[in-house]
Amino acid sequence: ELNFVQELAASLAEVIPSNFDPHFVVDTGRNGVTDMRKDCANWCNIRGAGVGHLPTTATPLPDLVDAFLWLKTPGESDGCTQTLPGGGNCARFDSFCGSQDSVGSRSGEPRAPVAGAWFDYAIKMLAANAHMDNTTHY
What we know:
two-stranded parallel ribbon, about 140 residues, about 5% strand, 2 helices, alpha+beta
C-alpha cells in the first residue's frame, strides 16, 4: 500500500495547488499476506487474507502516512455470498463477493453472511495468516 500512497500523492500534486499536503491512513486489517488475490480489484472476503500490522502512528513514511489502522473490524464480513449461510438468497449480493478470490465462491467453502455480520471462518483465517509486525511489504 505504501507504493500506492506514494503514487496517489504524486498524482494529486499534479492537479492540486502546491500548498496541498496530503496525508494518508493505511488499512492494515486484512493486508498481512502479499499476493493473495488473482485480481487486485477483488476486495470481498478475500481467501488467504491475514491481519496486517498492528494499529500505530509509527509508519515508514511519517511525512505521508499518518497511521496504520484496522478500519474494518477483522472478522466482520465484507459482504454476503449469493446464498446466505442459512440457505436464503442475499438481497444485497455484490458480484465482487462472488469473485474467484472470495471465500464462499468455491465448492465446500462456507457461505458469507451480510456485510458487517460476524464471519467466524474469516476471523480464523485472518488470525492464522496474520503478520502484525512486518512492514517490509507495505
